[in-house]
Amino acid sequence: MIARRVLEEAQRTLEDTGVERKAMETRLGELEQHIHELERKLEEDSREFSDMELFRQRLAEEMDDERHQYQKDLSERDFSIDQTRKKYQGVQL
């Protein structure tokens, strides 16, 4: 009788442990899936960051080109103004 009770209790414990194991395996599967989703998102974000960094670099280069062109235009304008001034100052003398 005591052996039967111990056996029944052991079987219940085994069944409970089996249920817990299945629940843990299910949870583990869910967590693994979540990890894969996070890795995929990280990969996408990394690509987007790389694209944005490349865009930022190109934009900075374009701004430098524009700045240099503006400085060149100002220099040419100043030279033209000086030449015109010299021309008309020479006529007035």
Please describe what this structure looks like.
It is a single chain. By secondary structure, the chain is mainly alpha-helical. It has one helix and no strands. The longest helix has 91 residues, at 2-92. The protein is rod-shaped, with a radius of gyration of 40 Å. The mean pLDDT is 93.
Task: Briefly characterize the structure.
Helix content is about 100%, strand content about 0%.
What is this structure's SSE topology?
Layout: H1 2-92
Keywords, please?
93 residues, mainly alpha
| Amino- and carboxy-terminal Cα gap | 135 Å
Low-pLDDT runs: none
SSE arrangement, N to C:
H
Give the DSSP E fraction (strand runs of 2 or more residues). under 5%
SS content category: mainly alpha
Bulk shape? rod-shaped
Mean pLDDT: 93
> Using only CA atoms, what is the Rg?
40 Å
Secondary structure tally, helices? 1
Give helix % range.
over 70%
Would you report the number of β strands? 0
Give the biggest sheet. none
